[in-house]
Amino acid sequence: MKKHIVRSLKYLVLLCVLYVGLVWIVYLADMSELSVHPWRQIEAQLQTSMGVWMVIAFVVLAALYPLFGFMRSHIEGFDAEKDDVRLFNAMQLYGFKAVGERDGVKLYRAESPLRRLLLMGEDTIEVHTTANGIELVGLRRTVARVAYQLKAYKHNSRYEE
Fold first, then answer.
1. 9-17 — which CB contacts under 8 Å span 24+ positions?
2. Domain range list for the chain
3. Of the candidates 81, 62, 74, 64, which has an alpha carbon nearest to the alpha carbon of residue 144?
4. Please, which residues bridge with residue 139 across strands?
5. Where does residue 14 rank: exposed (0-12), middle (13-18), buried (19+ CB within 10 A)?
6. pLDDT per residue as tens digits for the range 73-116
7. 156, exposed or middle or buried, with CB in 10 Å at 0-12, 13-18, 19+?
8. Check whether domain 70-159 has CATH 3.30.310, yes or no
9. Closest CA to 103 of 123, 121, 129
10. Separation CA 80–CA 87 (nearest Å)
11. How many whole angstroms separate alpha carbon 138 and alpha carbon 24?
12. What angle, 0 to 180 degrees and rounded to 10, lies between the N-to-C axes of helices 49-68 and 38-46?
């Protein structure tokens, strides 16, 4: 539950930063003498009913983000020990490096600090070994990419034998 709240708060901050950034971009692009300072514009918008609905939408999106922003992907027939090189290559292809193991779960994190920042610190992919394959757990966009690559490696491994 604590992880869910932290992820929601991170996403809420990101939405607010994006909103303020867009208001500043519009202000800087409008260089006329009639343009209103961004902080006054934000203050005026938040005092309207549309501003209140915007805040409600931001809070609801942030609360729901951990539910649709993260995923588990199961890859059958993939052995984490035997196919360790393929797993390493797929992770490296998308900018992840092995950082260790915790309770039998392999952990991978983004290599560059910029990428970690862009992923809001949620840059860890966990690789769990299951009875008939592996399971990837993490941010939806990163897990989906790595899982797709691993499935391609698995599919193409038929031709190696």
1. 9/62, 10/120, 10/121, 10/122, 11/61, 11/62, 11/65, 11/66, 11/69, 11/120, 12/58, 12/59, 12/62, 14/120, 15/58, 15/61, 15/62, 16/58
2. 2-67, 70-159
3. 74
4. 70
5. middle
6. 898 887 777 778 888 888 888 889 888 888 888 889 988 888 88
7. exposed
8. yes
9. 129
10. 7
11. 33
12. 90
* Element spanning 124, H or E: strand 124-130
Taking the C-alpha atoms of residue 126 and residue 113, their distance in angstroms, rounded to an integer, is 19
The closest alpha carbon to 134, from 121, 119, 116, 153, belongs to: 153
- Token pair in block for residue 45: 């918008």
Give residue 94's pLDDT: 87
Tokens 């990837």: give the residue.
136
